[in-house]
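Bench notes, afternoon.
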Amino acid sequence: SEMPVHLYKLMDTTPQVRMAPFWKMVATDDEALFWLLKPDYDPRQHVVLQTPEPDVFALPWTRKLQASQEINNEPSNCAQPLQATVSQIEKKNNSMSYQVSSNCAGYLVFSEPYYPGWHVKIDGKPRPILRANYAFSAVLLDAGTHTVVRYYLPDSLLIGIVISVLTAMVLSAAVFTSKNSFS
């Protein structure tokens, strides 16, 4: 074709995973959009956080983890500017792992859509995920060096496996009982 093709590269974008030293906790989507649209909002420094709605198919221990989450609504009390490095260790279809070093506490923001079923472990311990910037996710991270693993394992999958196994057991028992009663 004679039609010209133009390719553009955005040079000043926000990284896919980053630390945010300043945050604002909000209760509703409208409030989140209000803060995101303010002229002084800087996506490289700020994150707007919301507690996610509980998943209908959440297992009891998942609900307990969400209910116990520590939400720090105070701005970072770090006396120096944030210096953080995020290095990707591994990336698979349903999991990613990162090495994160930071001189200040803050929220590690994942610029990927928030969706129930995603989990985060920091140094091997499960941590609750918050909705960030209306559509993404974030997790509170203390100062220091940490290994962060984000993986997808929805509770509905586990519930489906348990129901399938129980159904197979009941059907096997029914077939075994019916064979024995005809003998």
